[in-house]
């Protein structure tokens, strides 16, 4: 399997277990939405894939190999890109410098990122702290693409953005899904937007998967979506 596979993964920080028995499959060219209320383990799931948590049990496979024991930097080199919720761009570097920091050989070049996000091209000489929230988010995504990943993890990329910017970003993410053979894992609070974009979804509650299936199932049954987003894992079937 060239994409991402988690099998019965339990992980957390120190003695605290946050994820329990999480399994998922994400082949290349597919997009998976990860939904759930705040504090249910969504960000921990991304951190675990990247190698920043303590893996208690289970296995993580990526790009045809087992990566459970690999340090984070080795996982990144294998092709895992990350767009953090805080964006974490360098405020004192220009847009172009922020992008070039992450550059690795592959189809995503500076020119291609500028073509993908024209507003970044217009702001290439501006510093990170001179950008709007939407521009910072585009820069965070552009920087991740410059590392030429085969798997892109995004932690709430639409959070706190104006609706017009959200629409623009959704169109770009849809393009990524269609044009590149990228595997995309999207953690998002806005369930409706995420389900409209990603054909498949999982819902986490208390660190466990309480739904895994087609997004359409949830879009067609809003009451079920509401109950799954609020239900306690031990009552879920």
Overall 3D shape: globular
- SS field, number of helical segments: 10
Quickly give the structural class. Answer: alpha/beta
- Can you list the strand order of the major beta sheet? 6-7-8-3-9-10
Q: Got a strand count?
A: 10
Q: Largest sheet, if any?
A: 6 strands, mixed
First and last CA, distance: 28 Å
Q: Give the low-pLDDT segments.
A: 231-237
Run of helices and strands: EEEHEEHEHHHHEHEHEEHH
Structural notes for this entry:
37% of the residues lie in helices and 27% in strands. The protein has 10 helices and 10 strands. It has helices at residues 42-50, 72-78, 95-101, 110-116, 118-122, 133-146, 163-179, 191-197, 215-219, 222-230, and strands at residues 4-13, 16-26, 31-35, 54-62, 65-66, 80-83, 151-155, 183-187, 200-205, 208-214. A 6-stranded mixed β-sheet has the order 6-7-8-3-9-10, with helices on both faces. The chain has a 4-stranded antiparallel β-sheet with strand order 2-1-4-5, covered by helices on one side. It starts with a strand and ends in a 7-residue tail after the last helix.
Which SSEs are present, and which pair or pack?
Blueprint: E1 4-13, E2 16-26, E3 31-35, H1 42-50, E4 54-62, E5 65-66, H2 72-78, E6 80-83, H3 95-101, H4 110-116, H5 118-122, H6 133-146, E7 151-155, H7 163-179, E8 183-187, H8 191-197, E9 200-205, E10 208-214, H9 215-219, H10 222-230
Parallel strand pairs: 3-8, 3-9, 6-7, 7-8
Antiparallel strand pairs: 1-2, 1-4, 4-5, 9-10
Helix pairs in contact: 3-6
């Amino acid at each position: 399997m060239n994409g991402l596979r988690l099998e019965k993964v339990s992980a957390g920080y120190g003695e605290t277990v946050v994820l329990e028995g999480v399994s998922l499959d994400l082949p290349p060219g597919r997009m998976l939405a990860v939904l759930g209320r705040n504090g249910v383990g969504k960000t921990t799931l991304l951190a675990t894939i990247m190698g920043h948590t303590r893996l208690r049990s289970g296995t993580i496979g990526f790009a045809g190999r087992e990566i459970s024991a690999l340090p984070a930097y080795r996982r990144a080199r294998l092709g895992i890109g990350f767009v953090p919720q805080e964006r974490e761009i360098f405020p004192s570097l220009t847009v172009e410098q922020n992008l070039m920091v992450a550059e690795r050989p592959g189809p995503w070049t500076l020119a291609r990122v500028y073509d993908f996000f024209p507003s970044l091209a217009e702001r290439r000489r501006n510093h990170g702290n001179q950008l709007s929230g939407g521009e910072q988010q585009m820069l965070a995504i552009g920087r991740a693409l410059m590392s030429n990943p085969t798997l892109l993890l995004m932690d709430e990329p639409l959070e706190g953005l104006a609706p017009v910017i959200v629409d623009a970003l959704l169109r770009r993410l849809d393009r990524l899904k269609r044009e590149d053979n990228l595997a995309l894992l999207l953690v998002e609070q806005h369930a409706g937007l995420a389900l409209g974009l990603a054909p498949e979804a999982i819902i986490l509650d208390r660190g466990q998967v309480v739904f895994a299936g087609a997004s359409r199932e949830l879009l067609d049954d809003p009451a079920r979506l509401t109950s799954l987003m609020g239900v306690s894992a031990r009552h879920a079937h």
